[in-house]
C-alpha cells in the first residue's frame, strides 16, 4: 500500500542539486505513466524493474498494475529519493545503485532476467553507450523496455542516438502518441523482443 506522496518538492530540490542526474523539474504525470506501464502483464507473476524512479510517479502505476503480484525492483542512485520510495511503498524492493549493475541486482533478487524494464532515467545515464545493451541482455526473450522522452527533444542528437541503440538491441521499437497532458509533453518508446535476451526465471530462480 502506497503512502500519500509529497514528492514534488523533493523532486525539485534534487533537480536543483543535480540537474544532470534528474530527468525533469517535475515528476511525470499519470497520463504518461499509463503507456509506460501498459506492457506489464495483467496476469501471472512478472518481474518488473524500474530504473530512476525518482519520487515514484511510475512506481505508483506499476504497483497498481501488479496488484501484489510478482516482483517490483526500483533502482535509484539518489539516496534521498531512494529513502522516500522506501517510506512511500511498502511492497517495493529499493536498491541504491547504478542501472549499469542491473544484471547483478537481478541476480541478488533471485532472478537472472526481468519481464519489463521501465526507465525514468535522464539522457546523461545513457552517455556511455552501453546501458541499452545491458538492459536488453537483462530481459527475457519476450521482455519489454519502456523509456519516455520529451517531444521537443525528439530530434536532438541524444534522442537520435538512443533510437539507433534501441533498434540495434531490440527486434521491435515503436513510439506512442504524444502525451500532451504531461509537462513537458512526452512520448514513450516501447522496445520489444531483445536480441540478446537472458533465460527466463523458473520458480523464482535464475533460468538455465
Automatic annotation (TrEMBL):
Which is one Pfam family of this protein?
RrnaAD
Q: What biological process terms from GO does the record include?
A: methylation
Q: Which GO terms label this protein's molecular function in UniProt? A: methyltransferase activity; RNA binding
Annotated keywords:
Methyltransferase, RNA-binding, S-adenosyl-L-methionine, Transferase
Name this protein carries in UniProt: Phospholipid N-methyltransferase
Q: In which organism is this protein found?
A: Halosaccharopolyspora lacisalsi
